């Protein structure tokens, strides 16, 4: 293996300028020196030295349909030449048709009438959902959320994100959350099946409502102090933890009994990442609110939003002026979103994703058999996880995964005579999980290539 790469003279000039002029508030340099990228296509990005990297995280699942997807890029280009801009208080065709597409789909799947409200991104849409929820519950500002859950880093979103690190220096400005254990079976009690553990977690949550002295329920008036439960059906930053299939159905039963709304955060898992438009569809429940973002526009133009039940968002209860964003429902974003829906509706897109995910997961399971440091692998569609552990196959090993990420970014692995790098994302409660979110358009040969590159990194990690 090679030594640490040294930045080119041109790159070093840029890095020196970055060090002086750029805020580091939204910057993480996973490797030194950081790579500077110059182009992208499909499942690959290239740095300024024309070194190619296979990307298995696709901008945290924002680019579900591949970098520089020609069809989606062309939709954006065409919109630029017709109606590139219009103030959000004015109507345009794209906003109306995209709202209809999402709302009609929700009616078909959940049997519920609802409406769509747009904003510019995931965190901002979480903020809008909090307004909808608080408004519908007479101003209640307490929420349930999961341990390991991530909903963003704006002030409201960070209050319902389980990591204190994201709000330590800012405090609380409204919402607060009680964090409930997620059915993380690999690290749960031994002796239970995955489904039994899911039921156990629901039963522990339901216990909070048995008596007023558990602090969440007033049996005299039959009312909870909590407005909603924010869920990521598949945990994202928490490590792509996939719960048992019975879990949300049983949880929703408890929520409905006590008048608590379920908000499904689909920002990272929506738009076919798990083989369905919304990941909550796998679990046979009716959400009250869905929050979406990221892959709606394949990362081309910021656009996110919420779908909410008619009773929560109709103009009488959520009237004009309830919230606002200058760039909400922008025509560039809605044009790409509409084209994405057309593209995925022309074939059985979900079946394609499930087949590729099954193939990828089988490859990970084969690696797990050969490398004891892989403690757990799992997947749903093309949301896949690979947990790196110590020699016992259980103790979290962040250091080894950090080493693998750095080695992948050296760009010095060779497969079939081709020199490549590998871009991985790190997640999980202990930052020891490879969270794999490849392009949904990835080919089977590219999946095999990704597995070969992962194998080389595992060999390096175990022989170092």
TrEMBL record:
Family: Belongs to the class-III pyridoxal-phosphate-dependent aminotransferase family.
Cofactor: pyridoxal 5'-phosphate
One Pfam family this sequence matches: Aminotran_3
Official protein name in the record: 4-aminobutyrate aminotransferase-like enzyme
Matches recorded under InterPro entries: Aminotrans_3, Aminotrans_3_PPA_site, Class-III_PLP-dep_AT, PyrdxlP-dep_Trfase, PyrdxlP-dep_Trfase_major, PyrdxlP-dep_Trfase_small
PROSITE patterns (alphabetical): AA_TRANSFER_CLASS_3
UniProt keyword annotations, A-Z: Aminotransferase, Pyridoxal phosphate, Transferase
GO molecular function: identical protein binding; pyridoxal phosphate binding; transaminase activity
Keyword Metal-binding set for record: no
């Amino acid at each position: 293996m090679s030594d640490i790469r040294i930045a080119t003279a041109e790159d070093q000039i840029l890095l020196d300028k970055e060090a002086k002029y750029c805020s580091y508030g939204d910057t993480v340099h996973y490797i030194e020196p950081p790579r500077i990228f110059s182009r992208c296509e499909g499942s690959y990005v290239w740095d300024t030295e024309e070194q190619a990297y296979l990307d298995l995280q696709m901008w945290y699942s924002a680019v579900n349909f591949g970098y520089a997807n020609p069809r989606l890029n062309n939709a954006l280009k065409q919109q630029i030449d017709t109606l590139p801009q219009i103030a959000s208080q004015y109507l345009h065709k794209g906003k109306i048709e995209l709202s209809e597409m999402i709302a009609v789909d929700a009616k078909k799947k959940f049997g519920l009438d609802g409406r769509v409200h747009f904003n510019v991104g995931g965190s901002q849409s979480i903020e809008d959902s909090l307004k909808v929820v608080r408004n519908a519950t007479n101003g209640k500002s307490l929420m349930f959320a999961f341990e390991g859950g991530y909903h963003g880093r704006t002030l409201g979103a960070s209050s319902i994100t389980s990591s204190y690190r994201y709000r330590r220096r800012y405090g609380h400005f409204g919402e607060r959350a009680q964090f409930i254990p997620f059915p993380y079976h690999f690290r749960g009690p031994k002796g239970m099946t995955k489904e039994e553990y899911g039921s156990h977690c629901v039963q522990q949550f339901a216990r909070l409502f048995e008596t007023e002295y558990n602090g969440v329920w007033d049996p005299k008036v039959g009312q909870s102090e909590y407005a909603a439960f924010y869920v990521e059906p598949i945990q994202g930053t928490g490590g792509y933890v996939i719960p048992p299939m019975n879990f949300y159905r049983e949880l929703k039963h408890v929520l409905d009994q006590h008048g608590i709304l379920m908000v499904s955060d689909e920002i990272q898992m929506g738009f076919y990442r798990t083989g369905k438009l919304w990941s909550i569809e796998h679990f046979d429940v009716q959400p009250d609110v869905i929050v979406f973002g990221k892959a709606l526009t394949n990362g081309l133009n910021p656009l996110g939003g919420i779908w909410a039940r008619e009773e929560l968002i109709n103009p009488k209860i959520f009237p004009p002026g309830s919230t606002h964003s200058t760039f909400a429902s922008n025509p560039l974003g809605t044009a790409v979103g509409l084209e994405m829906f057309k593209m995925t509706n022309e074939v059985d897109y979900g079946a394609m994703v499930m087949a590729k995910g099954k193939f990828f997961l089988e490859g990970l399971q084969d690696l797990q058999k050969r490398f004891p440091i892989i403690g757990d692998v799992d997947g749903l569609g093309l949301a896949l996880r690979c947990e790196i552990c110590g020699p016992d196959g259980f103790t979290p090993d962040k250091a080894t995964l950090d080493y693998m990420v750095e080695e992948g970014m050296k760009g010095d692995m060779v497969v079939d005579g081709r020199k490549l790098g590998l871009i991985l994302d790190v997640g999980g409660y202990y930052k020891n999980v490879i969270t794999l979110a490849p392009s949904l358009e990835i080919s089977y040969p590219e999946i095999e290539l990704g597995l070969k590159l992962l194998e080389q990194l595992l060999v390096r990690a175990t022989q170092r």
